[in-house]
């Protein structure tokens, strides 16, 4: 009896205490949550198929920068081992014997990146190379005795003892590039490094650059990509070449498409090479999509496999016996895994559903694959793809998601005034009562060739968590809907894109989702450019944030990196000034803009230079339209300082709150 009473009292006490412990309420997503997010990438499968090497990127808040660490996880997901801790390490690969992991990095005061070897069992990495030029790419030979490397020519511009940099000496047609800065005549060439002797043999020399080198399965040949046209600076051409893996060998050209041929992948028997050919053969190939193509490694007629699929496919891998290729295909807001028959070109979807696969590697020992995948509610994780089933391997996002009450996400379709059907994705705050009209932000993707997908979209999630309906719109020019959808804005900027953005806004208003009196816009890069076009067209938008955008396109010729595109798509400014002025209408019609607009830019951006934001800020300031200008110091087109990213979110929300709430 006493035992029963004691047990009863303990149970009652335990239940009482448990019942009184308050449950932590879920909260919205905040800009500061970028400090908690981890992102996996760069998959590599061990030679025995039992381990997966990957990289995890996260914020080092103390240093206010992103850092990356190398990890490996067993195929069954039961063991997960961290190999490096927040040190520079990229292009990590397994040695063919599986004993070591190689990566490119810098240590201490090294000026140039080098290849390091790390024993998979642990310990410090040891430096394998001591080159004077930076390593762009490298790959192991199948036997593990050699590396093939693409190394940039040594930089002799700053050999003086003073801190004053020598002048830039430029004679190239295309002379500037974002992140790289002003371009000199240095090229990247191929070398073979023998591990036993540490001998470096030169494979290629001269004016042209070579990239994407990969050994044949027998280790005797190397396939690579190079633009060897008369004026490589003035076009997007690249071709496939094959050469023997020895000094003095002559490269043999495999392809002759005037567009781009790239990403060669040898078949398991070494007889065929699969690669990606651009759909366009123009000097500037942005308005197109990659086509899966195969060609005999010894030369011969190529076979384009996926033209009829009319969707971009990437990340090609051969299966074990070489009778199938697998890849990732964009298809109307999704990215799916597909197989491609190299004999017939038949494309078969292996996955379905509202999710996006970012990368994939084939495991020949398991006859399966490993992939990085995300859904609208879960950021990227690693999954094994076996048969047609997914098995989750990592749980990086569990702690990130635990305290959050995420917005609701759903796809929608709208019609533009010319009848074109447009795909979009809508984000609404969690627990929004039915029938509630919300202030609307249409946040526009860049590119323009790219798509908004059913993945975890941190930007739009943050804005929706701040109390807004947020729309992603795959306007004409976006990928995932076929070549005609992409090419429809060629030479006609600010027309159909604006029609599609306005059509999406009208649809959401008609559905009772958006409050027509409280609509805003925003975007970065071409999203910023489209924002400028839209506010110069439709005065209903009450707030806008234009990031890394431009309007006076006439002023960008020679000041950004797109000279090839401009000359092909718009013509020379002095020969076709009417076209240039037409696509510059947000600046020349700035007096029509009534929308309070915050402009943002990166100080060192050579992609869309800061002048694009400065000009529009100055114009609206002169017109007494509420405006502001934010410039992020020493940043390129993509902002890489975490505190600046947080600041950008906070300024967006504050600007929208001021004018839309």
Automatic annotation (TrEMBL):
Keywords: Hydrolase, Protease, Serine protease, Signal. Pfam families: PD40 (PF07676), Peptidase_S9 (PF00326). It comes from the Bacteria. Residues 456-661 form the Peptidase S9 prolyl oligopeptidase catalytic domain. GO terms for molecular function: serine-type endopeptidase activity. Gene3D superfamilies: alpha/beta hydrolase, TolB, C-terminal domain. One of its GO terms (biological process) is proteolysis. This is Peptidase S9. InterPro entries: 6-blade_b-propeller_TolB-like (IPR011042), AB_hydrolase_fold (IPR029058), Peptidase_S9_cat (IPR001375), WD40 (IPR011659). Residues 1-19 form the signal peptide.
């Amino acid at each position: 009896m006493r035992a029963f009473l004691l047990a009863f009292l303990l149970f009652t006490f335990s239940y009482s205490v448990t019942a009184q412990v308050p449950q932590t309420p879920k909260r919205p997503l905040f800009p500061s949550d970028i400090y908690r997010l981890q992102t996996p990438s760069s998959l590599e499968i061990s030679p025995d198929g039992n381990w997966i090497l990957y990289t995890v990127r996260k914020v080092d808040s103390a240093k206010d920068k992103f850092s990356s660490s190398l990890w490996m996880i067993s195929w069954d997901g039961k063991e997960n081992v961290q190999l490096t801790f927040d040190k520079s390490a990229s292009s990590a690969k397994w040695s063919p014997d599986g004993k070591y992991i190689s990566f490119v990095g810098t240590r201490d005061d090294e000026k140039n990146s080098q290849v390091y070897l790390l024993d998979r069992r642990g310990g410090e990495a040891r430096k394998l190379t001591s080159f004077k030029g930076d390593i762009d790419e490298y790959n192991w030979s199948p036997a593990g005795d050699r590396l093939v490397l693409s190394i940039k020519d040594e930089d002799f511009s700053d050999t003086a003892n003073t801190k004053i940099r020598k002048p830039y000496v430029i004679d190239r047609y295309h002379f500037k590039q974002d992140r790289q800065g002003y371009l000199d005549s240095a090229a990247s060439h191929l070398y073979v490094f023998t591990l036993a002797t540490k001998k470096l043999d030169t494979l290629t020399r001269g004016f042209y650059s070579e990239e994407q080198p990969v050994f044949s399965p027998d280790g005797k040949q190397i396939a690579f990509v190079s633009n060897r046209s008369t004026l490589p600076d003035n076009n997007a051409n690249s071709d496939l070449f094959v050469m023997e893996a020895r000094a003095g060998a002559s490269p043999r050209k495999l392809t002759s498409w005037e567009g781009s041929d790239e990403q060669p992948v040898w078949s398991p028997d070494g007889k065929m090479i699969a690669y990606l050919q651009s759909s366009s053969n123009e000097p500037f190939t942005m308005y197109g999509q990659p086509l899966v193509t195969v060609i005999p490694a010894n030369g011969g007629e190529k076979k384009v496999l996926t033209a009829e699929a009319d969707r971009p496919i990437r990340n090609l891998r051969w299966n074990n016996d070489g009778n199938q290729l697998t890849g990732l295909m964009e298809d109307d807001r999704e990215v799916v895994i597909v197989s491609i028959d190299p004999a017939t070109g038949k494309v078969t979807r292996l996955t379905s559903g509202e999710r996006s696969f970012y990368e994939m590697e084939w495991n020949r020992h398991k006859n399966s694959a490993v992939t990085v995948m995300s859904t609208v509610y879960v950021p990227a994780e690693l999954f094994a793809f076996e048969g047609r089933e997914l098995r989750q391997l990592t749980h990086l996002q569990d702690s990130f998601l635990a305290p959050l009450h995420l917005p609701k996400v759903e796809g929608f379709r709208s019609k533009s005034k010319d009848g074109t059907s447009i795909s979009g994705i809508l984000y609404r705050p969690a627990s929004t009562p039915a029938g509630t009209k919300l202030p609307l932000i249409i946040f526009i993707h860049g590119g323009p060739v790219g798509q908004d997908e059913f993945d975890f979209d941190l930007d739009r999630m943050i804005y929706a968590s701040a109390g807004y309906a947020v729309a992603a719109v795959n306007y004409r020019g976006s990928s995932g809907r076929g070549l005609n959808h992409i090419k429809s804005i060629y030479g006609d900027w600010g027309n159909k894109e604006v029609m599609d953005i306005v059509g999406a806004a009208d649809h959401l208003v008609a559905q009772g989702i958006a409050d027509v009196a409280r609509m805003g816009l925003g975007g970065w890069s071409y999203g910023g450019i489209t924002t400028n076009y839209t506010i110069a067209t439709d005065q209903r938008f009450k707030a806008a944030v234009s990031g890394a955008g431009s309007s006076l396109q006439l002023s960008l010729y020679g000041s950004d990196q797109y000279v090839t595109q401009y000359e092909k798509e718009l013509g020379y400014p002095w020969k076709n000034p009417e076209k240039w002025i037409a696509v510059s209408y947000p600046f020349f019609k700035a007096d029509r803009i009534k929308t309070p607009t915050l402009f943002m830019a990166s100080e060192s951006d050579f992609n869309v230079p800061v002048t694009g934001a400065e000009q529009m800020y100055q114009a609206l300031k002169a017109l007494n339209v509420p405006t502001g200008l934010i410039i992020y110091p020493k940043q390129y087109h993509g902002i890489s300082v975490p505190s600046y990213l947080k600041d950008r979110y906070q300024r967006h929300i504050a600007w929208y709150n001021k004018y839309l709430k």
